[in-house]
């Protein structure tokens, strides 16, 4: 059984982009495993495609009233036209009221509203059509209303969704189809209904694969765009975005946000003495060592050369200082000559330092990092006073940076 499961997993993974790492496969299943940047960009894409979908429905939904007018009798076509105008107004509201915000909750609400509108229209139109006697021709046109769930199910394919998100939305559409069948219980053609329901399930499976394939490409592209190619951690470009995102999150709740500016001590001497390849290995070893000691909510960024930022949300200054002291006391790695790698670290925190902008937070941490360097390196400075705390007992090196 285990061998069969492994073989099936490999077969399924072969259908996805080769750029996707094995460790990223769980991100196709649950949105909770997504990084903050991926969630933001996915939310923006979902809302943009919701608005595109809403625009098409807002234009096409009322146009079909012309067909209803030509086919159905007076009381019926006016009722359908009223439903269509209500649906058109709802789609227009989604189009004009929603703007990409980068928040996944807004994206979920937008896509829920988008699919709720035609689903309610589908149930309402079925209720109206059921109460009228139809001719052979008008009955044939009325069957076109039954295809709406299939259109909606296929429409899921345009969104980069996880498997869980696909299952939830597809289940809602299947429930709507079941409700429509229940409402026509007495006159229902069961073989046709069962065949249509099975076809809807098959379409749901295909759209789930299409959505997950889109998400897989997005995961790979976002990783390539935001990661530093040498160390694999977040790059400076994405770091600025992450800082703004984290700041906005804690600013809404008046929460704490600590930022550590880390500069590796005497790193230039490594490149000068042992070569750039040795320097690259030292940087990779440092990031791997530090990353293993961080929480999942923390973000480590390569700011440039041997400079790094560490973002610690929901962490006050004292907590951040204790965490950094513990991390560096356990070691940050080794230099090529076997001596311990040390760093000068400046620490600032949003609430404690009464900082008003993310740029000011970064500048305060940067200033304290330079204060740590001027006071002898190998220490964490968390105030603007000259008093500092030694991070480790390792002696400061004398080579210049």
UniProtKB/TrEMBL annotation:
PROSITE patterns registered for this protein in UniProt? GGDEF (PS50887)
EC id: 2.7.7.65
Keyword Kinase applies: no
GGDEF domain spans which residues? Answer: 255-385
TM ranges are 52-74, 80-98, 107-125, 137-159, 166-185, 197-222
What keywords would UniProt list here?
Answer: Membrane, Transmembrane, Transmembrane helix
What superkingdom heads the lineage?
Answer: Bacteria
User: Which protein are we looking at?
Assistant: diguanylate cyclase
């Amino acid at each position: 059984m285990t061998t069969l499961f492994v073989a099936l997993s490999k077969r399924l993974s072969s259908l996805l982009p080769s750029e996707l790492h094995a460790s990223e496969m769980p991100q196709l299943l649950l949105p909770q495993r997504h990084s903050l940047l991926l969630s933001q960009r996915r939310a923006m894409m979902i809302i943009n495609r919701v608005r595109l979908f809403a625009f098409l429905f807002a234009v096409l939904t009322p146009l079909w009233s012309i067909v209803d007018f030509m086919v159905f009798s007076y009381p019926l076509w006016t009722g359908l036209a009223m439903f269509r105008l209500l649906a058109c107004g709802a789609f227009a509201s989604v189009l004009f009221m929603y703007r990409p915000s980068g928040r996944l909750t807004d994206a979920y609400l937008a896509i829920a509203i988008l699919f709720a509108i035609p689903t309610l229209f589908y149930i309402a139109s079925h209720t109206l059509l059921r109460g009228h006697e139809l001719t052979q021709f008008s009955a044939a046109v009325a069957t076109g209303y039954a295809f709406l769930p299939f259109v909606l199910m296929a429409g899921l394919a345009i969104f980069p969704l996880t498997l869980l998100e696909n299952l939830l939305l597809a289940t809602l559409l299947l429930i709507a189809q079941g409700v429509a069948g229940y409402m026509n219980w007495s006159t229902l053609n069961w073989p046709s209904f069962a065949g249509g329901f099975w076809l809807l399930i098959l379409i749901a499976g295909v759209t789930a694969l299409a959505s997950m394939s889109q998400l897989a490409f997005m995961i790979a592209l976002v990783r390539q765009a935001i990661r530093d190619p040498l160390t694999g951690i977040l790059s400076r470009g994405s770091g600025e975005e992450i800082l703004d995102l984290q700041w906005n999150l804690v600013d809404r709740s008046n929460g704490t946000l600590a930022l550590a500016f880390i500069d590796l001590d005497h790193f230039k001497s490594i490149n000068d003495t042992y070569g750039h390849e040795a320097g690259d290995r030292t940087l990779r070893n440092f990031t791997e060592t530090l990353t293993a000691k961080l929480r999942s909510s923390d973000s480590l960024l390569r700011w440039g050369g041997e400079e790094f930022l560490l973002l610690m949300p929901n962490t006050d200054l004292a907590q951040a200082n204790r965490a950094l002291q513990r991390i560096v006391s356990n070691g940050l790695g080794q230099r090529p000559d076997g001596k311990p790698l040390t760093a000068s670290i400046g620490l600032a925190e949003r609430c404690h330092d009464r900082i008003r902008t993310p740029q000011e937070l970064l500048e305060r941490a940067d200033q304290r990092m330079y204060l740590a360097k001027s006071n002898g390196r190998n220490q964490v400075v968390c105030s603007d006073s000259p008093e500092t705390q030694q991070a480790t007992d390792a002696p400061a090196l004398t080579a210049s940076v």
